[in-house]
Amino acid sequence: MHHIYVIENPSMKIAIASTFHPYRGGIAQFNDTLAIALKSQGHTVNCFNWSRQYPTIFFPGLAQTKSGTSTPPRSAVAPLDSISPNSWRKTAKIILSNDAVDVVILPFWHSALAPALRGVARSIKRLSPETRIIAIMHNATSHDGKASDKWLTRRFLKRVDQVVTLSESVTVDVTKLAPALPIKTLFHPIYNDLPKKLDKSIAREKLRIPTSAKNVVLFFGLIRPYKGLEVLIEASNFLSEQTHIIIAGECYGSWKKYARLIHESKAKARIHIVNRFIPDEQLGDFFAAADLVALPYLSASQSGVTATAIQYNLPIVASNVGDLSNSITEGETGALVKAGDSHALAEAIDMWFLEKHPELGESYAKLKATKSWEAFAKKLV
Q1: CB 271 within 8 A of CB 245
Q2: What whole-number distance in Å separates Cα of residue 1 and Cα of residue 3?
Q3: N or C: fewer beta carbons within 10 Å in the chain?
Q4: Distance from C-alpha of 173 to C-alpha of 5, rounded to nearest angstrom
């Protein structure tokens, strides 16, 4: 039985050492919003960003940072360098330099960063044993990872006091790596500060979706092997000819496999590709143009795209993996299919469009309330 540490002080001094704006991607967005939510609860929150997150030679995308108009929490650029042990010790000293710190939060999502996070945790405990170290585990090991990931993750977990996960599936995986470590299972909060949706016809015109498209399916986010984009492309061969697909996101790795599948698809004229990173301010364009979001993931823990689709009141057809089923009510807000089954995916998408469904705002209302950032921040501490 796991024991959960309860901190009763209603106002705490919290430090978060992780990825923040201007870094790109879902983790930076998550951390930015988390810091704001904790501050709104009355806590003092200091954010410490990376001076270097991934060495450029190892980064699969085009760029690690972004420009934009978002207003994230102010973060100090710590000397935290993923490949410099000296920077890990310096970062710990900076975190603890202004009075006592009650809690240090270390979000984890990729084992390549585990040595750095472990180094920070180790130094903080040496300098301030009473400071609690909490790891927010987005994954137990890296997506598309190797066997060495588990070893790196296990070493990191030995240096933290408690783990918070965003899904039961990650809790199970973490328990296998660190059976004695206290774990609290929460959820992926739903974003409520996203750009407003355009009118559907305007959004489609902006994205050059032809007026002949009756139904539009959106695949959104960074394209990585575990997300199963090839399953959706194969499913396009079986979809109604009135259904178009938007693939929006930067590809991490080779695009050749997907390009070949699209070229061979009978529906290639109905597949629209925006192969680049989509900044936050353009989210409303893509989700307004879509009628349904597809998540054909081969494996998953939880998905920030799911939270975004819910905020925009879009139905979701997803693989029944990880925590995705906890955000989808079969027949009401979407459907679940067997992972890797393109026929089942196509059938579920077609069936959704054939059946009549009411607006999903009311169906999602309770989910938005129970999975709000305010609720997450309260349960976290």
Answers
A1: yes
A2: 7
A3: N
A4: 20
**What DSSP string describes 150-188?**
HHHHHHHHTT-SEEEESSHHHHHHHHHH-TTS-EEE---
Per the CB < 8 A criterion, the answer to whether 65 and 56 are in contact is: no
pLDDT at 72: 47
Residues paired with residue 337 on neighbouring β-strands, in sequence order? 319
| End-to-end CA separation in angstroms for the chain | 20
Q: Are residues 118 and 223 in the same domain?
A: no
Report the percentage of the chain scoring pLDDT > 90.
63
Q: What CATH number does the domain containing 83 carry?
A: 3.40.50.11930
Which structural domain, as residue segments, surrounds residue 67? 13-186
Residue 8 has pLDDT above 60, yes or no: no
Name the domain count of the chain: 2
Residue 232 makes CB contacts below 8 A (sequence gap 6+) with 217, 219, 245, 247, 294, 296, 342, 345
246 within some domain? yes
Closest CA to 186 of 156, 163, 161: 163
* pTM, two decimal places: 0.82
Residues 264 and 347 in one domain: yes
Question: Mean pLDDT of all residues in the chain?
Answer: 88
